[in-house]
Amino acid sequence: MTSIRFDQQVAVVTGAGGGLGRTYALELAARGAAVVVNDLGGNISGDGAGTSMADSVVAEILAAGGKAVANYDSVADSKGADAIIQTALDKFGRVDIVINNAGNLRNAYIDKLSDDDIDSLHSVHLKGSLYVSRAAFHHMKQQGYGRILFTSSAAGVFGNPEQAAYAAAKAGMVGLTNVFGIEGEAHGIKTNTLLPMAASRMAEKMDPAQLQQFAELNATFGNALTPDYITPLVVYLVSRECEANKSIYSAVAGRFAKVVIGLTKGWLGPRDAPASVEDVAAHFADIEDQTVVDEPCSLVDELQIIAKHVRAE
Ligand SMILES: NC(=O)c1ccc[n+]([C@@H]2O[C@H](COP(=O)([O-])OP(=O)(O)OC[C@H]3O[C@@H](n4cnc5c(N)ncnc54)[C@H](O)[C@@H]3O)[C@@H](O)[C@H]2O)c1
C-alpha cells in the first residue's frame, strides 16, 4: 500500500496545542504537511489565553524536521478565525485542510446552566467551527480542492447528562457537515464529522461516577482510550485519498465506525385531508417501525423518498 502523504499541502488544526489536536498536527506534519498550529492557550472552561501550548507543538514539529507555524487567535471571534486562515496563506501560500478541533467544556445540569456557559460553548464550538471553515471555504473553492473536518461528540449525537449546551453545539456539526458537504462537492471539497472519545484534559470536567465507568472500560479496551488511537481516521479523512463526503464517523479506542441517520418508511396519512391526532396515535407503531429505513442525503432527497413511497402505494 502506498503511504498517504501531504507534501505541498497546508493544514490548519484548531486547538492543536494539546489533547487530540496535537496528535493530528504532529501526524500531518510527519507526513509532509505544513501545519498552522492554532491554540488560544486557555483553560478547559475556555477562560484565559497564552502562547505556550501552540508554541510547544510547533517546536515539536520543527525539531522533527517538519513545517509549522503557531497562531493564538480564538476561533470564537470571526476576525480571529479569519486571521487563523490568513496565517496559513501568509506563511505557506494556501490552505488545503481545516480540522475544527478547538473546544472548551462547561458541564452543568440543565437548570444550572448559566447564560455565560451557553454563550461560551456555542461561540467556541458552533460559531468557531463555522467562522474558521467559512474563511477557508472561499480559498478552497478557488483552488478546487479542500478537506474539512468538524469535531462533534457522542454527547451531541447520542446524548450525555450535564451537557445540554455542549451537546447542542456539537449536534450542530452535523448540520455544518451536511451543508458544507453539499456546497463543496462540485468544488472538490469534502467535509466530514468526527465523534472522538479519548482521555484528555476534558476528562477533568466529567462526573466522577462516569469517570470510573470510563476507567473500567479503558481496561477492557487495553488502555486504548488515548488520542493517538483517534488520529489515523482523522488523518485519512483529510487526505486526498479519502473520497468520503458529508459523513459522520466515530473513533473510540481504536474502533472506527460510520454513524448513520435513518428515516423509517413511516405511515402515510390520507391525501384528501390531514390525519387526525387519533389517526397518528393509531399508527404510531407504523411511524416507529424500522423495517424499512432510508438515509436521505439532502432535504430534497427526503421529498423524493416520500414520493417513491406514495407512488408505490
Ligand atoms: N476527549 C474526548 O473524549 C472528546 C469527546 C468528544 C469530543 N471531543 C472534542 O474534541 C476536541 C478536542 O478535545 P480534547 O479532548 O483534545 O480537549 P483539549 O482541552 O485537550 O483540547 C482542546 C484545545 O482547544 C483549545 N481551545 C479552546 N478554546 C479555543 C478557542 N476559542 N480558540 C482556539 N483554541 C481553543 C484549548 O486550548 C485546547 O488546547 C474538542 O472539540 C472536544 O469537544 C473530545
From TrEMBL:
Coiled coil: none annotated. The keyword Isomerase does not apply. Gene3D superfamilies: NAD(P)-binding Rossmann-like Domain. Keywords: Oxidoreductase. The keyword Oxidoreductase applies. Residues 9-192 form the Ketoreductase domain. InterPro entries: KR_dom, NAD(P)-bd_dom_sf, Peroxisomal_Beta-Oxidation, Sc_DH/Rdtase_CS, SDR_fam. Transmembrane segments: none annotated. Belongs to the short-chain dehydrogenases/reductases (SDR) family. PANTHER family: DEHYDROGENASES, SHORT CHAIN (PTHR45024), SCP2 DOMAIN-CONTAINING PROTEIN (PTHR45024:SF2). This is SDR family NAD(P)-dependent oxidoreductase. It comes from Spongiibacter thalassae.
